[in-house]
Design goal:
The chain is of the alpha/beta class and about 350 residues long. Helix 1 links the parallel strand 1 and strand 2. It has a five-stranded parallel sheet with strand order 3-2-1-4-16, with helices on one face. It contains nine helices and 16 strands.
């Protein structure tokens, strides 16, 4: 995958302004590839041990070949983009320090936290956020942590959700040795964010799909999950998403045995804020960072792009968001973009 927005030989040697990009996922890489071509000094900082974000650590190899991602990152390095990995902004370095030291800041930290169901039994051993589990597994698979530090999955594992994270969690569960993987989803595959084809692909590899059911509680045995109490659902009038609202059918509860559960019911935005402060950067009600049409936040010099700005999305929209933001950052750095929202 190519992130550089120009030919390598056309990258200017002299530098205009300095930009720090927080997050080395598709939005951050897309922005870096344009800004370096316009002659800016670009530093990308990321919490993971290598750049790529969820392209490397959150998506299985069959969907996104890692060698293509790493080749695109090598080209950015050759163009002069500097990467500092293993750096957690808000812990290892303050966001305030980056705002002070650079001419512009782009926040592109994505959505790295699973939304949890918080139903009875959610704290039982063996119940995991799917994305966190997937990331831990790929960290181990690529040699960044011991494989035995990643909790094993039971032979019978349940995945909850209908999006791409849920689908990927099913593949990871099979790769981890779960002999029987069940995907439970509260709507039908026709309404699932991942789409009908992904559900059919799961069935071809042996995943058992349960549609129109939702977890009501997790059942524990000696402190560990040993079953999921499901309730059947019916589809009602459309909700705020435009899809039919799933409604529980009283008296339809039943138990599905399981020794592990991976919850994949949505992702939360993860801005790189220091504890106790948002640095004057306004958030939307869903936790995404508010920006105007020029990707400007309410803090001067600070822009936001990608999933941390618009919520969890596919690779294409995140990459495009970073590319679009880079144009406005360049205009700001060259004096063409005037003013600032709220100031």
């Amino acid at each position: 995958m190519r992130f550089l927005g120009c030919r390598l030989e056309n990258v200017p040697e002299s530098k205009r302004k300095s930009v720090v990009i927080i997050g080395a996922g598709p939005a951050g890489l897309g922005a870096a590839g344009r800004l370096v071509c316009w002659g800016h000094e670009v530093l990308v900082v990321d919490k993971m041990p290598e750049p790529g974000g969820l392209l490397i650590f959150g998506i299985p190899e069959f969907r996104i070949p890692k060698d293509r991602i790493r080749a695109g990152i090598r080209e950015l390095r050759e163009a002069g983009v500097e990467f500092r990995t293993g750096v957690v902004v808000g812990k290892d370095v303050s966001l305030e320090t980056l705002i002070r030291d650079f001419d512009a800041v782009l926040i592109a930290t994505g959505t790295w936290e699973t939304r949890r169901l918080n139903i009875p039994g959610a704290s039982l051993e063996g119940v995991y956020g799917a994305l966190e589990y997937i990331v831990d597994y790929f960290l181990a698979k690529y040699g960044y942590k011991p494989l035995d530090s990643v909790p094993p999955l039971a032979e019978k594992t349940v995945v909850v959700g209908g999006g791409y994270t849920a689908v990927d969690a099913c593949h990871v569960a099979r790769e981890r040795g779960a002999r029987e993987v069940h995907l439970v989803y509260r709507r039908t595959r026709r309404e699932a964010p991942a789409g009908v084809e992904e559900f059919e692909r799961l069935e071809k590899v042996g995943v058992i799909i349960h549609e129109l059911v939702s977890p009501k509680r997790y059942i524990g045995c000696d402190g560990r999950v040993c079953g999921v109490e499901l309730i059947r659902m019916r589809l009602g009038a459309p909700d705020e998403s435009g899809r039919p609202r799933p409604e529980p059918i009283p008296g339809s509860e039943h138990v599905l045995e399981a020794g592990s559960v991976l919850e994949a019911v949505g992702l939360r935005p993860t801005p790189p804020f220091d504890p106790g402060t948002n640095h004057g950067i306004r958030l939307n009600r869903d936790g995404t960072i508010w920006t105007d049409e020029a990707f400007r936040t309410t803090r001067r010099k600070v822009f936001a792009a990608g999933d941390v700005r618009h919520g969890a999305s596919k690779i294409g929209p995140a990459l495009k968001s970073g590319i679009d933001a880079s144009r406005f950052i360049h205009e700001f750095l060259t004096g063409a973009l005037k003013g600032w929202p709220g100031l």
